[in-house]
Amino acid sequence: MTQRIDKGLIAEQNAKLEANLKEDYQALGNKLSRDGINIDEITAKAEAFQIAVPSWGTGTGGTRFARFPGEGEPRNIWEKLEDSAVINDLSQCTERVSPHFPWDKVDDFSELKQTSDSLGLKWDSINSNTFQDQPGQEHSFKYGSLSNTSAASRDLAIQHNLDCIEYGKALDSKTLTVWVGDGSNHPGQQHFQHAFERYLESMKTIYAGLPADWELHIEHKMFEPAFYSTIIQDWGSNVLAAMELGPQAKSLVDLGHHAPNVNIEMIVSRLIQFKKLGGFHFNDSKYGDDDLDSGSLHPYQQFLIFNELVDAEYRNQAEFGPNYMLDQSHNVTDPIESLMNSAASVQRSYVSALIVDRTKLTEYQTANDALMCSNTLKKAFTTDVSPILEMARLRKGGAIDPIAVYRQSGYRAQAGAERPNTGGNGSGIV
Ligand code: AOS
Ligand code: ZN
Ligand code: ZN
Ligand code: ZN
Fold first, then answer.
1. Which of 45, 218, 260, 278 is the most exposed place for a label (fewest CB within 10 A)?
2. CA 178 to centroid of ligand 2, rounded, Å
3. Across the strands, what pairs with 178?
4. Does the structure show a pLDDT above 90 at 32?
């Protein structure tokens, strides 16, 4: 079995950086205290921050054109868990893994639960998959799953989601995330209303199968695989479906699933207001559902989203507590490095939003001082909070510099030697 990162190595590498970190942390603490902010309170919140890793994200992604397998890719859910444990060992903010069925093949769920327990990992939302046919599948999803015109195909899709709830119970998850590719490729191909009615009927059966302490998260996406219309194409259809189903149904926001330039932070605010924000899939994009690394292109947008989230947190907004998760496709980087970097990038947005001067912001908003409103946000965004993130990791036993320790550890080369068979492993192309 591939060894996780040696604690001695983490300590040794941290020792080299610790003196400088303490100086930087002190300097930032002094700066923040001038604005009445106690740096240790912010660091404690950074330490409590968690974002889940998608099981498929630990493998190399790909496009419909090609996939270039990486060295030592995990070949199954057990190896994906090992890689997830490494990510959490070093970054200390990714203790949850979000599985995907049936990509993650599991015969014995109690054994899987024991393994995750032994690695210090927990399970986040269960992702169902009715966007492709499985070998030997009796009724196809070619023309949709939960909204298919064929009752037999719909029933299969419903049953798969009910099965996912059972798997989730065994793993002590509390959420099912449903994203479907259902839609059409030609104008007129589908009766929009009837298709949505069929979708809602199917979802009602799934909803009825939810345990009382579970949530059902609905994920919208503008297009792909259907290129003319998609059944849950935006947050409008999403929240309508969630409202129709009931209080346990909420909307999930994947950052890459909107038209370019859409004001995502405002969608987030609306969903918070109506108690319908279920969770996030973080990633970044330039053109569409690119699934680039979180914060790699639009860190300010990510910060503005967290500005809404932190605002809701401080206002103790009712029924607020979204699941945070990464959903990215790593094509040219080591997925472990990308996931560590991205988790820290999202955590950075959270911390930056925590140091926004909300009293001043409210005053400026009330006075319609647009320029100072903007400057108040920019001040927080441009403050380098790296020492807080680094100190949070250090205090939790993680690495001040996760990428450096990971590279030093030789984990990837070792995985390459122990996992010779690369190939299709069900990593996220979508
Ligand atoms: C698809 O584009 C969505 O982002 C899904 O959340 C996800 O990537 C897929 O369900 C992977 O299973
Ligand atoms: Zn997603
Ligand atoms: Zn996507
Ligand atoms: Zn995706």
1. 260
2. 10
3. 218
4. yes
